[in-house]
């Protein structure tokens, strides 16, 4: 794929000689047309993006001023899952600018009126993307390299997640850590086509370097949920974002 993209073009004019012109990459064959209408848009900079295990955590981070959050519930019964999603969506409605995404469970998210859903690459084979778009939900998609970025961008998602940046123990991911150099290249390649979220093993110390890659958001998990004082940690993380974007 990269060999097909490698032409005498933009890569000869950059310090990092790596193809970034999406028009010169091949298309992924055999994909159905992207949903119509297109997915509702997200802000270009989604900011600090905690991924949390239950609705109580959604309420906590929103109360601390976070405005983008993802509920990722694992192992709940169907009834408990619906209660968690409904409670998380209700928490988001208390803040006019809140963006509460639901991981995986797009049917319940649509029924409860969530702001958006986040899906992995494996979900693209089974999820009804057209139904998600018709429901007005924003769609975030995961990616772990060029093929998956091309596959995801074909659907015109509301945002694209890039990762894992570093090794992570919070979720089993088959892809190896991508590192800062690759995330920077991915941001140059995809940044004009969708808001970007970096994810995977990012803590407070690494956050400035990850933000410098060109993404507009960074998703964090244990950096918030495993902190001794999550309120203080969120303030510190938010200050990193403010320092990065106030200087641009």
Automatic annotation (TrEMBL):
A GO cellular component annotation in the UniProt record: cytoplasm
Comment on bound cofactor: Binds 1 Mg(2+) ion per subunit.
Binding site for 4-amino-2-methyl-5-(diphosphooxymethyl)pyrimidine: 70-74, 103, 142, 171
Short name of one Pfam family: TMP-TENI
Thiamine phosphate synthase/TenI domain span: 54-224
Protein keywords: Magnesium, Metal-binding, Thiamine biosynthesis, Transferase
Enzymatic class: transferase
Cofactor or coenzyme needed: Mg(2+)
Residues noted as binding Mg(2+) in the record, renumbered to the chain: 104, 123
Catalytic activity: 4-methyl-5-(2-phosphooxyethyl)-thiazole + 4-amino-2-methyl-5-(diphosphooxymethyl)pyrimidine + H(+) = thiamine phosphate + diphosphate; 2-(2-carboxy-4-methylthiazol-5-yl)ethyl phosphate + 4-amino-2-methyl-5-(diphosphooxymethyl)pyrimidine + 2 H(+) = thiamine phosphate + CO2 + diphosphate; 2-[(2R,5Z)-2-carboxy-4-methylthiazol-5(2H)-ylidene]ethyl phosphate + 4-amino-2-methyl-5-(diphosphooxymethyl)pyrimidine + 2 H(+) = thiamine phosphate + CO2 + diphosphate
Positions that bind 2-[(2R,5Z)-2-carboxy-4-methylthiazol-5(2H)-ylidene]ethyl phosphate: 168-170, 201, 221-222
Listed HAMAP family: TMP_synthase
PANTHER family, per the entry: THIAMINE-PHOSPHATE PYROPHOSPHORYLASE (PTHR20857), THIAMINE-PHOSPHATE SYNTHASE (PTHR20857:SF15)
Family (UniProt): Belongs to the thiamine-phosphate synthase family.
The protein's role, per its UniProt record: Condenses 4-methyl-5-(beta-hydroxyethyl)thiazole monophosphate (THZ-P) and 2-methyl-4-amino-5-hydroxymethyl pyrimidine pyrophosphate (HMP-PP) to form thiamine monophosphate (TMP).
Protein name: Thiamine-phosphate synthase
């Amino acid at each position: 794929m990269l060999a097909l993209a490698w032409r005498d073009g933009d890569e000869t004019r950059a310090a990092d000689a790596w193809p970034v012109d999406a028009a010169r990459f091949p298309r992924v064959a055999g994909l159905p047309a992207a949903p119509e209408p297109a997915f509702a848009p997200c802000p270009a900079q989604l900011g600090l993006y905690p991924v949390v295990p239950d609705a109580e955590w959604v309420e906590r981070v929103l109360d601390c001023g976070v405005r983008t959050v993802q509920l990722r519930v694992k192992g709940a019964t169907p009834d408990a899952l619906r209660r968690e999603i409904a409670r998380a969506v209700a928490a988001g409605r208390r803040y006019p600018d809140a963006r509460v995404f639901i991981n995986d469970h797009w049917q319940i998210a649509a029924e409860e009126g969530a702001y958006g859903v986040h899906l992995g690459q494996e979900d693209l084979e089974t999820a009804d993307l057209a139904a998600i778009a018709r429901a007005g939900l924003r769609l975030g998609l995961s990616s772990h390299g060029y093929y998956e970025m091309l596959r995801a961008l074909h659907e015109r998602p509301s945002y694209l997640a890039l990762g894992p940046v570093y090794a992570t123990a919070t979720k089993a991911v088959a892809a190896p850590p991508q590192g800062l150099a690759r995330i920077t290249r991915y941001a140059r390649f995809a940044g004009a086509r969708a808001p970007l979220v970096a994810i995977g093993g990012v803590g407070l110390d690494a956050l400035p370097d990850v933000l410098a890659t060109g993404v507009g958001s960074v998703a964090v998990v244990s950096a918030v949920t495993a902190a001794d004082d999550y309120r203080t940690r969120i303030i510190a993380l938010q200050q990193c974002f403010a320092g990065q974007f106030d200087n641009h």
